[in-house]
């Protein structure tokens, strides 16, 4: 198998809903990618060697550039492969604003329903890991609360599903019209998760026939094409190449960042996760990119979104 420094290496696992979002994005653009399957639970040493400690799924690698978080991945895919576009209307800014809801409050609600409905049937290690990640330090109490409040949580999910069903009632193929968009992938991953991981999900979703029909169309897009790839080979690929990201910080940075500043980056939630340390290579309103060097990977550039992430200087 011959892989180049421009090829997509995707670190994920099959059951991950956020990875499914990106896999659909690959399908929309008809891309080929190399599939590295990572563990569902930490430790993930071959992944965190590349990211510097970031453990969430998925991560995209192109040579020695490492892209964390699906919003960062989707933005980079649009930049590198502009056609067919993820933004088929002139409302790209609005679509990104909506993505903060689909990836934030809506997805968090679906997680509470799935975890809460499982109750004591969740494996202990999985319950502890995902509970801490999504429900905070008092995750055990959070799981009990989600179980007790399950009817309320489902009611909160049914309202936006009803709105989406009404949007799709005019017969459009996708959310924005005839062409699939990033927003379709961003909404679909929540539906995919609820349908596949909650026993009552299919019956509840059946109340919304237009939504089900739309989800079938998104599923039919597929995931592009892929080949399996070895995690150690991905590390060797990073070691043998150099990052290609340009250096610079956009004007009016609210934190006064400059290239070469030492920073740490981590999700802006209390999920008990390790921050990633490096030096600023690039920053603008949407992205923070930091260089880090380690014996096993050489120098890599790790990319994070600004929205939803905390950057600490020093």
Give the rounded overall mean pLDDT: 97
| Distinct helical segment count | 11
CATH architecture grouping of the largest domain:
3-Layer(aba) Sandwich
First-last Cα distance:
42 Å
- Which percent bin holds the helix content? 40-55%
Give the number of DSSP strands. 11
What pattern of helices and strands is seen along the backbone?
EHEHEEHHHHHHHHEHEEEEEE
Query: How many domains make up the 3D coordinates?
Result: 2
Strand content: 15-25%
Describe the structure.
- It is built from eleven helices and eleven strands.
- It has two domains: 8-84 and 226-313, 3-Layer(aba) Sandwich (Glutaredoxin), CATH 3.40.30; 92-221, Up-down Bundle (Glutathione S-transferase Yfyf (Class Pi), Chain A, domain 2).
- α1 (17-29) packs parallel to α3 (70-80), α1 packs across α8 and α4 packs across α6 (139-148).
- It is an alpha/beta fold and 314 residues long.
Structure at a glance:
This protein has 314 residues and is of the alpha/beta class.
List the helices and strands and how they pair.
Layout: E1 8-12, H1 17-29, E2 32-37, H2 45-51, E3 59-62, E4 65-68, H3 70-80, H4 92-118, H5 124-135, H6 139-148, H7 150-167, H8 182-197, H9 201-205, H10 209-221, E5 225-228, H11 231-239, E6 248-249, E7 262-267, E8 276-283, E9 287-294, E10 298-305, E11 309-313
Parallel strand pairs: 1-2, 2-5, 4-10, 6-8
Antiparallel strand pairs: 1-3, 3-4, 7-8, 7-11, 8-9, 9-10
Helix pairs in contact: 1-3, 1-8, 2-11, 4-5, 4-6, 4-7, 4-8, 5-6
């Amino acid at each position: 198998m011959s892989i180049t420094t421009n090829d997509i290496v995707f670190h994920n696992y099959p059951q991950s809903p956020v990875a499914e979002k990106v896999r659909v994005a690959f399908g929309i653009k008809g891309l080929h990618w190399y599939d590295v399957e990572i563990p569902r639970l930490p430790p993930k040493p071959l992944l965190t060697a590349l990211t510097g400690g970031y453990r969430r799924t998925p991560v995209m690698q192109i040579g020695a550039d490492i892209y964390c978080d699906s919003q960062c991945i989707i933005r980079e895919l649009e930049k590198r492969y502009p056609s067919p576009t993820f933004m088929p209307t002139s409302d790209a800014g609005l679509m990104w604003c909506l993505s903060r809801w689909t990836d934030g409050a809506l997805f968090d609600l679906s997680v509470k329903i799935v975890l809460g409905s499982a109750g004591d049937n969740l494996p202990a290690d999985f319950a502890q890991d995902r509970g801490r990640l999504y429900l905070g330090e008092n995750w055990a109490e959070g799981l009990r609360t989600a179980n007790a409040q399950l009817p309320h949580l489902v009611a909160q999910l049914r309202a936006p599903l009803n709105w989406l069903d009404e949007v799709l009632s005019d017969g459009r193929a996708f959310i924005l019209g005839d062409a699939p968009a990033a927003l379709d992938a961003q909404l679909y991953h929540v539906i995919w998760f609820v349908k596949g991981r909650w026993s009552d999900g299919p019956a509840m979703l059946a109340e919304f026939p237009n939504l089900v029909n739309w989800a079938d169309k998104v599923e039919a897009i597929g995931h592009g094409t892929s080949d399996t790839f070895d995690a150690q080979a991905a590390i060797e690929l990073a070691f043998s190449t150099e990052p290609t990201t340009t250096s610079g910080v956009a004007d009016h940075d609210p934190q006064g960042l400059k290239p070469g500043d030492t920073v740490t980056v981590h999700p802006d939630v209390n999920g008990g996760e390790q921050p990633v340390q490096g030096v600023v290579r690039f920053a603008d309103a949407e992205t923070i990119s930091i260089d880090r060097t380690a014996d096993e990977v050489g120098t890599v550039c790790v990319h994070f979104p600004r929205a939803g992430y905390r950057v600490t200087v020093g």
